[in-house]
Amino acid sequence: MKRIILILAAGIFSLSALAQKPAGDTKGGISADMLRELAGAYEGSAADKALRNALNGTPINVLAVSADRPVTMDTHFSDEVLTKGRTDQKSSGRCWLFTGLNVLRARMIQRHDLGAFTFSQNYLFFYDQLEKSNLFLQGIIDTRDLPLEDRKVDWLLSNPLGDGGQFTGVSNLVMKYGVVPSEAMGETLSANNTSQMSAQIKTKLREDALALRGARPDQLQSMKIGMLKEVYRMLALCLGVPPTEFTWSRYNSRGEFVSEKTYTPKGFYEEFIGEDLENNYIMVMNNPAVEYGKVYEIEYDRHVYDGQNWVYLNLPIERIKEMAIASIKDNTALYFSCDVGKFLDRSRGVADLRNFDYESLMGVSFGMDKKQRILTHASGSTHAMTLIAVDIRDGRPVKWMVENSWGANSGYRGNIIMTDEWFDEYMFRLVVEKKYVPDDIMALLRQKPVMLPSWDPMFAPEE
Question: Into how many domains does the chain fold?
Answer without folding.
Answer: 1
